[in-house]
Design brief:
The radius of gyration is 20 Å and the shape is elongated. The relative contact order is 0.13. Helices cover 36% and strands 16% of the residues. The two termini are 21 Å apart. α4 crosses α5, α6 crosses α8 and α7 packs antiparallel against α8. The protein has a 4-stranded mixed sheet. A 3-stranded antiparallel sheet has the order 3-5-4, sandwiched between helices. The protein has a two-stranded antiparallel sheet with strand order 1-2. The chain is built from 8 helices and 11 strands. By secondary structure, the chain is α+β, with helices and mostly antiparallel strands.
């Protein structure tokens, strides 16, 4: 089952990206697991170049990286130089400022798209900041709406900014510690989805959908985290937690 920032989801999430054609040096792969995607450079063994290629080759195809992921291998200047060289060669694709992925292709679909999950993890960067899906995006992740919004909104304890990836945008909005108290937990996703619906539109159907979708463990977490939510949302969370299907 797919996850987003540690939360199990019922629906796959894909993030739009422009299609592109890369040089012949790029070796396409249809693998969904570990695969050799970045050609080795024998002359660079033992260097930052070789170390970065090794990390890329041992990672799941389609994973999104930022330079921060490689700073344990060399200086920022050396890492940036290697990433620039790999991008120029077509072994990496620059999906946004400071974000790269190893392009994947499918025999029928062509160039595959990076997922919102992979991009969010790369932005978060080894736990240095937290992200919490919010708004229509949170509702979509829970299956309460079917349409993926053009702007994917996240609350964060980091700086506010907007990351553009193809025709889609990822909006990061700085918020208070209280709003981030449940970040990365199913209760945080529920709180933000209900905020999006507002009290007037949170009807029995919404409650029934969440009751059917969430596990007993999820409901226990809702009950435990209810005091961290606005009063009306806390009431809905307790109602969901106490319902049985």
């Amino acid at each position: 089952m797919p996850t987003l920032l540690g939360i199990e989801l019922q629906y796959p999430v894909e993030l739009s990206e422009k299609r592109a054609i890369f040089p012949d040096m790029y070796i396409p792969s249809t693998s969904t697991g570990h695969s050799r995607l970045v050609p080795e450079n024998p002359l660079a063994r033992g260097s930052v170049d070789a170390a970065i290629r090794s990390v890329l080759n041992s990672s799941e195809a389609g994973k999104v990286f930022s330079p921060v992921d490689f700073l344990h291998l060399g200086s920022r200047a050396a890492v940036d130089k290697v990433l620039s060289r790999l991008t120029a060669a077509g072994a990496l694709r620059r999906v946004a400022r400071g974000l790269y992925d190893v392009p994947r292709t499918h025999a029928v679909l062509g160039l595959l798209l990076p997922s919102a999950d992979d991009i969010a993890k790369a932005i978060a960067g080894k736990g240095s900041l937290r992200l919490q899906p919010s708004g229509a995006y949170a509702a979509n992740l829970l299956g309460l709406t079917q349409q993926v919004p053009v702007k994917l909104a996240f609350l964060t304890d980091g700086m506010s900014r907007t990351v553009h990836v193809g025709n889609q945008s990822i909006l990061l909005k700085h918020t208070t510690p209280r709003n981030m108290a449940t970040a990365g937990r199913i209760s945080g996703l529920v709180i933000q989805a209900l905020r999006h619906f507002k009290q007037v539109h949170t009807d029995d159907q919404v409650v029934e959908m969440l009751t059917a979708k969430l596990t007993a463990e999820d409901k226990a977490m809702l009950l435990a985290d209810a005091p961290l939510a606005p009063v009306w949302i806390a009431g809905v969370m307790r109602r969901i937690a106490q319902c049985k299907v």
